[in-house]
Amino acid sequence: MLQVENLHVHLDTPGGLVKAVDGVSFSIQKGETIGIVGESGSGKSVLAHSLMKLNPEPPALYPQGTIHFEGQPVLEMGKTELRKLRGNDIAMIFQDPMSSLNPVSRIGKQLIEAIQAHQKRPKQQAREKAIELLEDVGIADAKARMNSYPHQFSGGMRQRVLIAMALASNPKLLIADEPTTALDVTIQAQVLDLLKGIQEKYGTAILVITHDLGVVAHLADRILVMYAGKIVESGSAEDIFYRTSMPYTWSLLRSVPVIREGGPERLIPIDGQPPSLIDRPAGCAFEPRCPFARDACRQVDPPLEHRESNHSAACILSSNEFEEQKKQLEGVLTT
Amino acid sequence: MSALLDIKGLHVHFPVKKGLLQREKSYVKALNGIDLQVQKGETLGIVGESGCGKSTLARSIVGLQQPTAGEILFHGKDYADASAKELHDMRRNVQMIFQDPYTSLNPRMKIGDSIAAPLKAYKKTERLESRVKELLELVGLNPDTHYDKLPHEFSGGQRQRVGIARALALEPELLICDEPVSALDVSVQAQVINLLQDLQKQLGLTYVFIAHDLSVINHLADRVAVMYLGKVMEKSEKGAFYTKVQHPYTQSLLSAVPVPDPLLERGRERIVLKGELPSPANPPSGCVFHTRCPMATERCKNEVPALEPRGLSGQEVACFYPLVEKQPADAPKDPLYV
Predict the structure, then answer these.
(1) Which end of chain B is more exposed for a tag (fewer CB within 10 A), N or C?
(2) Could you tell me the superkingdom of the organism this chain comes from (chain B) (predicted)?
């Protein structure tokens, strides 16, 4: 359905050219859930915004690569075509639901507006549809809540309203950029449940962007791990969590505390900071922080290579070599 | 043995004016009868969702917030009765690390000066520069190159280290950490957590560690207090927290945390709470959790359950129907039931 080929997105800033997305390829099939995991500055949000060409231009530039949505080249679309694509075929929900809603306009009015922007419906019908959507996303007493203002809603309810708005025209792809980061855990659980329910009901493909490994483990069928503008590992959720083949992914998994009795007393942090995206060092971008780095890593920037079936990783170590190194290091760490 | 910090029946209420002439007064009950003890050298974890009063509690402990009722004893001495001189000394001994390292440092002050500020305030200016350098080194920063830098030249993790160095400058006994790692990226979060653990061992510090992230609390805390709407719902010892959870709220919090393990995630049963946190201006009658509790009865609506040892494990819990130890044979791998 969506095909991204060797995409490069650069941001032209006063400090220099930021290579936010640096040669990324992936595809999304109908009805599947893909998770993009990465830390801040890894380029995951810029990538997601590119799919609808939403990055402000300038500073964003698309020097190379293509994005096709159902065969249509997104990057070559004009304003009117993009308008049709955004909201109709691809919809997006953002991290902060308060800043995505108009604070001085009633929830109902904003929803009706969103519906009428994409569908020619008389107001009364649009209103009924809006109430139906609010009920779908689990807002109690939807009819009365149409007259509320955003500030009268809690964070979780606002996120539900945004999801309702995104669903207004039955999009084929829903992009969720850190949808639960601003929410409390119990509310996060409600919203994640809702997203799963929507997918079952409408068959919408979902692209979730998050830094939380738990959230992708819960939602995603397939996971892309991003580091410094590149995809460094991709595969099914099982591949990523149980057959990790890239040191960065492995380090991420080892650095988060997990609720488990007899869990590690000490976390293994990743030393240092992510690299600057302005002048990227030669070689592998993770090399300065990698516990398995060797001389060759400073020269070769390993491409994303197939390991088994749909599992790919960008590392000069083969899966077997990495497995061995991992065991050695884990042995040292536990003693 | 008396506790280092002893909080007894702490209430903090904020008045809210209402009505046409702003004459009607009501109260937001941010803290509603909190009893907590912290022993020297331990880490007390406080966990709860936004609006449960955990930050108000932190502010009260460092003396930034006057209690409406109740007392906070530090070394057996109440803040409220202390003379100005005693208060000055108590404040030195209780320091705080804030959530957001971006806003808690003066952007125009050099890092070295920021760390020196508390030393100057307490007139400990002998060997000022070398003391600041010691502190920089203690938190893993470079004493020579980082001294003259400004906060914007630092990353989030480094800024949080500066915040820690500043809090340690006066050699406090008690550190209040209010969400110290929640603004950091996961890879950096682990660095700061490890640093806090090392410093505790090295300097014999006592922590009150406040967070909404249960995994972080579980990792760090010796004892945990779970808060909801200005009340403590359950207290538990390390380890026991995850095997002998008794309060339905704690149970649902635990089940809501996504675990980075896909097979386990898919097989897990979630208790998804209905609704949202009620307003602390108008808390529910009886047990404050009854409006969202899956097992609430008539009794919960009318009576307030006291926080006392109950059930099989004998942990303190404020619930009439504490859950018994739950270890179903068919779910041996679930970390919640391990």
Answers:
(1) N
(2) Bacteria
CA atoms of B246 and B309, how far apart (whole Å):
10
Question: Can you give the residue range of the structural domain that contains B310?
Answer: 226-323
Residue among A184, A213, A218 whose CB faces B49 most closely: A184
* A191 and B CB contact within 8 Å: no
Phi, psi angle pair for B100, to nearest 5°:
-105, 105
Spatial strand order of the sheet with B77-78 comes to: B24-38, B5-18, B69-74, B77-78
Q: Is residue B172 part of a domain?
A: no
Q: How far apart are CA A143 and CA A148, in angstroms?
A: 10
Q: What is the spatial distance between Cα A286 and Cα A302, in angstroms, rounded to a whole number? A: 11
A125-141 pLDDT, tens digit per residue, is: 999 999 988 988 888 88
Domains detected in chain A: 2-220 (3.40.50.300), 227-334 (no CATH)
Phi first, then psi, for residue B248 (nearest 5°) are -60, -30
- Looking up tokens 């890239």, which residue turns up? A246
B191: contact with A, CB 8 A cutoff: yes
Judge if pTM exceeds 0.90.
Answer: no
What tokens does B318 get?
Answer: 């404020």
Asked if this assembly's ipTM is beyond 0.90, the reply is no
Can you say how many angstroms the Cα of residue A32 is from the centroid of all Cα atoms in its chain? 13
* Tally of domains in chain B: 1
Rounded CA-CA distance A165/B276 in Å is: 21
User: Whole-angstrom Cα distance, residue A65 to residue A53?
Assistant: 13
Chain B residue with Cα closest to A250: B187
In this predicted structure, the answer to whether residue A86 has a pLDDT above a threshold of 80 is: yes
- Please check whether residue B260 lies inside any domain of the structure: yes
